[in-house]
Design brief:
- Keywords: NAD, Transferase.
- GO terms for molecular function: tRNA 2'-phosphotransferase activity.
- Its EC number is 2.7.1.160.
- This is 2'-phosphotransferase.
- The protein has about 280 residues and is α+β, with helices and mostly antiparallel strands.
- The chain folds into 2 domains: about 90 residues, Arc Repressor Mutant, subunit A; about 160 residues, no CATH class.
- Helix content is about 20%, strand content about 20%.
- The longest helix has 16 residues.
- The protein is globular.
- It starts with a helix and ends in a 46-residue tail after the last helix.
């Protein structure tokens, strides 16, 4: 793993999941002082400069972070400042720690006219049966279920919200869901988010279509009704890096601290819909 990726992963881990245990306080919009972020042990070990952090914010392909001058300072800082104490930083989405969705995100409403034409969640064949067993896509331990407004290969591209290697696409009838009073949001980096219903679910009745992406699987759901079974030939296909439905290689013993690198299990929150399938990055 190169240093830029390591810094980005550390920022994601801290700002999305570990801020509270690290003693950081997020404001209503999810921002926290950059100078305090840089004191976190995992980041300290990488010794990032201010320019390293700015690069992680501006050059991240999925635009996962935002940074701005600290509005709480008595004297407005110089926009050219490279002093970390003059800046605040946040993750744009993907949190498991408590946040105020209304302050961090833009609400999607029929009245506002900002309802996307396409809302799609990408997942893997290995996770399809657990998703059905749960009744739909579930946010798990994250605050939201993540969706994109298209596919990575579409013209113009999709910045964030779906892994490029997703095998199964679940399209949502967001209009119907909104009419049933489900709250939907869009993040600064264009990810579509929802807390789901009272059980944290986007039920299968809202599935406009579910279909295989790269294999000859065809359409499995249409207009909230199951029209075909997932073929047996792909049901046991492992998720990326040989991981099974529970995120661990078959017969693999758990490693300390979840293992490192490719041995790290895919979190349950990414199995049933919560998150974007990207772990902490």
């Amino acid at each position: 793993m190169n240093r830029e990726v390591a810094i980005s992963k550390a920022l994601s881990k801290l700002l999305r999941h570990a801020a509270e245990e690290a003693g950081l306080k997020l404001d209503a919009e999810g921002y926290t002082p950059l100078d305090q972020v840089l004191k976190w042990q995992r980041l300290q070990s990488l010794q990032p400069t201010f320019e390293d952090i700015r690069t992680a914010v501006t050059d991240n392909a999925k635009q996962r972070f935002s940074m701005k001058l600290n509005p709480s300072l008595n004297t407005p800082p110089d926009p050219a400042s490279e002093n970390p104490s003059d800046w605040v930083i946040r993750a744009n989405q993907g949190h498991s720690i408590a946040i105020d969705s209304a302050a961090l995100l833009i609400p999607i409403t029929i009245e506002a006219g900002n309802v996307p034409d396409i809302v799609v969640h990408g997942t893997y064949y290995a996770f399809y049966q657990p998703i059905l067993a749960s009744g739909g896509l579930k946010k798990m331990s994250r605050n939201h279920i993540h969706f994109s407004t298209g596919l990575p290969e579409d013209k113009g591209g999709v910045i964030s919200g779906m892994r490029k290697d997703a095998e199964l696409l679940i399209y949502i009838d967001i209009q119907k869901s909104l009419q049933d009073k489900t709250l939907w949001w869009i993040s600064d980096n264009g990810v579509i988010l929802t807390e789901g219903d009272e059980n944290g679910l986007v039920l299968t009745k809202y599935w406009k279509k579910a279909e295989g992406r790269r294999q000859d699987v065809g359409v499995l759901w249409e207009d909230g009704e199951q029209v075909a079974e997932l073929p047996q030939s792909v049901r046991n296909r492992k998720a990326p890096n040989g991981k099974g439905p529970r995120g661990r290689r078959e017969n693999e013993k758990p490693k300390g601290n979840g293992g490192k690198g490719r041995g790290k299990p895919m979190k349950e929150l990414d199995v049933l819909g919560g998150g974007d399938g990207l772990g902490t990055e």
